[in-house]
Structure formats: C-alpha cells, structure tokens
Amino acid sequence: MTRMDTRMDGRHFARRLSRRDFVKTAAAASALLPMPALAQNAGGRVVVVGGGFAGATCARVLKRLDPRITVTLVEASQTFIACPFSNVVIAGLRDLKEQQFGYDKVAASGITMAFSAASAVDPQARTVTLANGSRLPYDRLVLAPGIDIRWDGLPGYTESAANVMPHAWKAGEQTLLLRRQLESMADGGLVVISAPANPFRCPPGPYERASLIAHFLKTKKPRAKLILLDAKDAFSKQRLFQNAWKELYPNLEWVSLSQGGKVTAVEPASKTVVTDFSRHQAAVANIIPPQKAARIAELAQVADRSGWCPVDAITFESKQQPNIHVIGDAAIMGAMPKSAFSANAQAKVCAAAVATLLAGQKPEEPRLINTCYSLVAPDYGISVAGVYRPKDGVLVDIEGAGGVSQIEAPRSTRSAEASYADGWFKTITTEVFG
Ligand SMILES: Cc1cc2nc3c(=O)[nH]c(=O)nc-3n(C[C@H](O)[C@H](O)[C@H](O)COP(=O)(O)OP(=O)(O)OC[C@H]3O[C@@H](n4cnc5c(N)ncnc54)[C@H](O)[C@@H]3O)c2cc1C
After folding, report:
1. DSSP codes, 207-272
2. Rounded distance from Cα 188 to ligand 1 centre (Å)
3. What's residue 37's pLDDT?
4. Ligand 1 pocket, 44 CB below 6 A?
5. Which residues of the chain have pLDDT under 50?
C-alpha cells in the first residue's frame, strides 16, 4: 500500500471501527506485503498473463521484491481501460480518456512487456503460447485475465445482441455505446438494466450504474423511467442505495428475484427484456449478463465447472494445476468480492508468495483488505470495507473489521466519501500504471 492509500483507508475505517479494531486492521494492512527473506539462489522466470489491476500490480511488486526474477507481462492490448468510474462515463460526466492507461512505466520498472494475447498454456511443459506465435517458458505462471461474458448464459444474449443491448461490463467501446444510446433516447423512454446472480465482477456495480443513469435521466430526460431487474433478493450496500434512491430517484424501480426480477431471455430485434412474469420493451436495455473467468483460464485447465478458478487461500496457486497462480476477478476468493481493490491486494500477496516459493521457502499467511466505493450521485458516495484471512482453505471475513458507511449521515459525509472515491481511483491507477 502506498502512504496515501493507508492514510485514506485509515480515515475511512476509523469512522466506523472501534480504536482496538482499527489498530488490528492497520496491523493487517501492513502485513499485506510480508517481505520474504530470499535465498541467494533466488531468481527464475515468471510470466504474468493480463495487465489489469491484478496482473500489472503483481508483475511490478514481484520485480521490486526480487529484481533477479525475470518477469514478463503478457497483455492483449497496448492501452488498459479501467472499469471503476466507467459508470460516470456512461452518465456523461467523465471522458473515457480518463479511464485509459499505458504500460510505459511498467516496462520502465524492469518488466518485459509482450503485447499479444496468450492463446494456450501447457502446464506440463510450463510454457505459454502467444497469438503472435512466440512461446514463453516459465517457472511460475500468474494468470490475471479478468472475466469473459458467458455467451450461453442468457437465451438471446449473443455477441451481436450486445451491439444492440450493451453490457458495458468491460470498459471501452461498450461503455460509449451505452452512453450514446442514453443520450439519443427520447425523453419518456424506458431504460431497463438487468443484474445477474452472484458471483460476478463488482457486486455493487449494477446499483451504482442504476443510480448514475437515474441521475442522468433526472437531469436530462425527466419523463423517462428506469427499471432494474435483478436475479437476486439482496445486494451490496443495499440499505444505503435504497435510502438514497428514495430521496433522490423515486422513479427508479428495483424488481427483486422474488418479485419476478430474474431476466430469463432477451429479444434484441425489439429490445425486449423477458422475465417469467413480464416483458419490457426498452428504449435502452443494459444487460449485465452472467460471467466467468476469461477464456485463457479454461485453456490452462485452471477453471472448474463453475467457470471460475479455485485457488489456495495463502499462495493463490491453482488447486487444479501446480505452478500456476490465479488472481483477480478470474479466481474464487471466498468472501472477497471481485473488485479492483481486491485484485490489487491479491496481486501483492501473490507476488510475495511467488518470490518466496521460488526461493524454496514457505509463504506466510496473509491478511487482505477490500474497500469498494460507489457513487449514488456525482457528489454522493457510499462504501463497504472488509478484511479477510485464510481459514480452512478459503478467504473468510474477519468479523468486526470493516463494514458499510453509516446508514444515517449528513450530505457532507456522502460528499466526502465521493471525494475519497476519486482519491482512491487516482491512487490505485498511479500505483499500478504510473
Ligand atoms: C461498471 C464497473 C464499475 C466498477 N467499479 C469498481 C470500483 O469502484 N472499485 C473497484 O475496486 N472495482 C470496481 N470494478 C471491478 C473491477 O473493474 C474489476 O474487479 C477489476 O478490473 C479486476 O481486475 P483484474 O486484473 O482481475 O481484471 P482486469 O482489470 O479486467 O484485467 C484483465 C486484463 O487481462 C487481459 N487479458 C485477458 N485475457 C488475456 C489473454 N489471453 N492474453 C493477454 N491478456 C489478456 C485484458 O486485456 C485485461 O487488460 C468495477 C467494474 C465494473 C464493470
């Protein structure tokens, strides 16, 4: 953690934790990066696939921990486009350029960049094959490829349907498509968002998106209506979101699973969203579909039947293939949610574990922190924080550490949290890419 990170989190946690708990949490934070005592003959070859929040962090921290390790970062794209704050882009309040980051500083920190998609992994031969035809040998491989959409997960929702009913769950062209559709929609139109069942990338994300689209509609298309159809009965920061919606967006209708909110099919030709009980013909339909670990995880044989990757809770080594570690959204991390903050924390722990294992030593048991901010309006932020430790092979919540923003709080507190969110994004992207 950078100094600024620690300071921000300190302020944030301190408001809702007892001093004793806070001290425990602060101690856990510093234990995030146990400095391995490396043997003289350490070194080795590590390939990291995926240069997002998890992969780019892991590559940099590994190189910092032991400069003798040869670290190659394989990334399909020259420019990373971050999802956090992409809902603000959709609401027309931020430029997509502010979400874009290059890899010059990563390369300058001694990491070999390979800009190509990894297309195969041979766990026995310990090699990664790239789409450009080259083959990279490794002693340890770290997979951090994020998510793919389950194109077979929702009847009617194909890749071409996503050009009509965008998911915008990977930032970039999809983000801009959804924004343009909202901008060009007639006032009085119906916007439908569908949220998937757990697990999926960014549990509070659909609710932040609904809030910021509601903000856009309130200010630009006041006669429009917004329905959020949900495959769940409960969601992250629920009371905070719902209280804020009552106050700010009385026209936002949330339909839970037990009220018939689960979307069972979509019909892209007419932009119709279908549930067991109703059909909604939308002017704009944002379908957030079921997800799974990105395809390379399946090709490397580290994903199980759930589509996600089971890992050891201390080293994040795959439970299916030795010498391959999986971090970030692609992995099953127990109680830890799929977030950029989590991906960054897991990457640091994984880097320390890989360096320690390469040195022939035993990694220490980690403690990890996650904080997820959400914007309900541009100046209205809320958050959830958690601290995690391995127990019986999985990461579990440390009870009493973390929690959500105060349920009753003045607008000045909400506005302060919105600025902490902004600070967090600047801090994490500077740490990973700057
Ligand atoms: C709308 C939205 C809002 C969000 N808001 C927040 C937030 O406020 N706070 C928060 O903490 N999190 C937030 N998240 C979640 C966050 O974006 C993800 O949890 C995070 O990006 C996960 O990091 P990752 O490194 O696992 O995956 P990614 O960041 O997606 O990185 C994966 C990388 O791997 C590359 N890749 C994939 N396959 C290959 C391959 N075969 N070869 C080479 N490269 C490959 C991809 O190009 C990509 O660069 C949000 C997500 C969404 C959708």
Report:
1. HHHHHHHHHHHHHH-TT-EEEEEES-S--TTHHHHHHHHHHH-TTEEEE-GGGT--EEEEEGGGTE
2. 34
3. 57
4. no
5. 1-31, 41
